[in-house]
Every structure is written in C-alpha cells, then in structure tokens.
Amino acid sequence: MTSALPETTAPPALDPVALRADFPILSEQVNGHRLVYLDSGATSQKPQQVLDAERHFLIHANSAVHRGAHTLAAEATDLFEDARATVAGFVGAEPEQLVWTSGATMGLNLVAYAIGNATIGRGAPASTPLALKPGDEIVTTAIEHHANLIPWQELAARTGAVLRHIPAHDDGTLDMDAAAQLITPRTRIVAFTHVSNVLGIVNPVAELVALAQQVGALTVLDACQSAPHLPLDLPALGVDLAVFSGHKMLGPYGVGGLYGRAEVLDALPPFLTGGSMITTVTLDHAEYLPAPQKFEAGTQPVGPAIGLAAATRYIDAVGRDAIHAHERALAERLGDALREIDGIRLLGDAPDAERVGLWSFDVAGVHAHDAGQFLDARGIAVRVGHHCAAPLHQRFGVTASVRASAALYNTMDDIDALVAAVAEIRPYFGADA
C-alpha cells in the first residue's frame, strides 16, 4: 500500500490556452456559448491535478488524522502534515505557523473570538496582553469584505473597544494620511485587506504595518485576493496574522489557512474546543496542545488540505510572477476597453495603482443583476451585487456593481468577449436613449 500522491505539474511557461486544458470545467458550454469564466474572485476553477490529489487520498489513504495507530491513519496523518508544510511554504511560513481553517471567514472569526476569550481571562498568562478594555481601538478600512469587518464589530461590542475605519479616496486608494491619524497609541488591532475584492487594488501593506508597529498594535491581513495572484511572503510582510481561502486559489472548498507569528499564535487562547486539541482532560479542566493544533478541534479537512497543497504546487509550477504579469495585462486591457464604453463607470479607477486582474463597474441605467443576466445569456460568468462589501459600494454611491475577475487560465479572447457584450447592455435595455 502506498499513499504517494500523483505528481502535480503544469506547463513551464504561462500559456493560458495550454493551461485551460488542465481545467475540465472550462470546456463546458453555457447557454449555447463557450464558457467565459470571469468570477474567480468569488471562487476559482480547479485543475485536474487538484481534483486528482484529493480523489487519490480518498481512494488510497482515507482515514482520520492524529487519532489512530493503524496504517491508514498514519498515512493520512503524514499526508495531512505534508500538506501543511507545503501550504505554509507557499506563503513563506513554517508548518507550525499555519492553522487549518474552513476558510478565511473562519480564520478571522477565530482571531476575533480568541481575543475576546483573552479579554475575559481565558487562556495562558501570555494571553493577557491581547485583552481589550473599553476605549481601546480597532482600526479597519472602509473597503473591507464583511468577513474582515463584522467580526471586529462583534469584538468591539463585547469588549467596549471602539471601531474606526481608514477611509478611501475617490479613486479607491486608501487615505494614508488619515491612517496615520487614526492609528494611535490607543490602537490595539489593525485589520485590513491586501487586495480589495471590489477594486482589485493592492494596498500598501508595508506602510500600514509600520504604522501599527509604531504603536504596538496587532496586524491582521486578509490575503484572500492576493494569495492566488501575487508572490506572497507573509513573514516578510511583517504582519502578525493573515488568512487566505483555498477555493479562491485553485483549491477545494472547505479549507483555508490562518498564518500567525509563533509568539502570537502561542498567546492566543483557543476558540473552538473539543477533541484533538488537548493534552489532558478531567471532568473540570483541560490543558491544550500548542499551536497550531490548539486551534484545530474536531474532524479536520484532510482531503481538502491535500487538494490545496496540490493547488499551491500548481501555482508555483506556473510561476507567481508570471501569473501576476499575465493577470495585470488582462486587467489593463479590460480597464482600457471599459473606459471607452459610454455609461460604464469603473470603481477604484486609480491609474497608477498596483492591481490584480479584477475590475468592478456600474452600468448607467441598468441594475447590476440585469447586466449579469445579460452576460450570462452569452456564456459570460461574472459576479453581481455588493460582493460582501456593502459599505464600500455606499461610499461610491451605488448599491451593486458588476465584477469581472480573471485568473491564470483567462485569455485576451475572454476579455474581448466580455467587452463586446458589455457594449451591448445599455442599448439592449434602452438605457442609452
């Protein structure tokens, strides 16, 4: 019996046409048209190599990890921990710095609720510095996904802390002068996104981290929209904690990662409790394993973790610099073309900003959902709505937008198909009269 996984390979250079052959779903037809998939910001498609890795585990080594003495259990545990080491290495971390989660939302809630537990005195003495008191401040930004906003709202409500927000300029870039004023010695946590899931703009992580470090604040990074698209070294960025989600980076659903500096993970008390995260249990008391296991109660996402490791190997085989350059070229073509269409307003149209392959736009006189249905009828998949960032849409004076988000498997033909269809939307609905 062997648990060795199939090798994960990809073409040595980024040829999106060649890469598409690895993604079975991209050969599908939608409404009689070839599928133009431009919704990777919501969820990415999965290459055959990822599907094979998870399936191989389920066929050859499926078993509970960290619990059994039999051969399958040992093999499953080895594969699970090898996956941890692979994914940790993908973001520049050590294995013990990576906590498995169900996704970024769980990771952010884990951090917020763990800090809440420290505030009520749960956890080791090392947790005490994390405790919040009334008047302490938590700083986020006005461009956050709800997953990096609502947990902090809840933490502030439970602890008496004050929640503050760094505003955005009209072009979608963060107001760093305001950030310097908002981040003060009262600030205990600074939570922000690496790349806006609405604007596609890469935010100034180094500047925000420096401001937080000057006042001793904890930094929490949402890396969901950067992990699949940019070279990412979390320790080098200097953040204390960061989250990312597997299904947005060619991996399976139901798995993600929480990165943390070792001393921060050691200080955080557990959030979820139960089996597999303890050393000793009596009827009245429990002692917990060190990080990362103390945050991994219950049954773990073994197959999805193995699939995510295969996804990171695939991305690395293609090359993250090559991916970023390709997607940036797609974004430039799309942005330039949409600006030429009457009635199209790009959100976050900062001309010199670093960005990933993502644009959101408003179609004058046509609701985003109607625009999305028009595009879907032509086989073009985009996201419509507020993209779990309602306050940011309010900032731009719209209730919803159309979002096109590209990945390594998209081609210039995909962009051209979208642009041609967008040009037809307002005439179709009579909004150009």
From TrEMBL:
Top EC group: transferase
| Reaction(s) this enzyme catalyzes, per UniProt | (sulfur carrier)-H + L-cysteine = (sulfur carrier)-SH + L-alanine
Query: Does NADP count among this protein's keywords?
Result: no
Keywords per UniProt: Lyase, Pyridoxal phosphate, Transferase
* InterPro entries linked: Aminotrans_V_dom, Aminotrans_V_PyrdxlP_BS, Cys_dSase_SufS, PyrdxlP-dep_Trfase, PyrdxlP-dep_Trfase_major, PyrdxlP-dep_Trfase_small
Question: What family is reported?
Answer: Belongs to the class-V pyridoxal-phosphate-dependent aminotransferase family. Csd subfamily.
User: What is this protein's function per UniProt?
Assistant: Catalyzes the removal of elemental sulfur and selenium atoms from L-cysteine, L-cystine, L-selenocysteine, and L-selenocystine to produce L-alanine.
- What protein is this chain from? Cysteine desulfurase
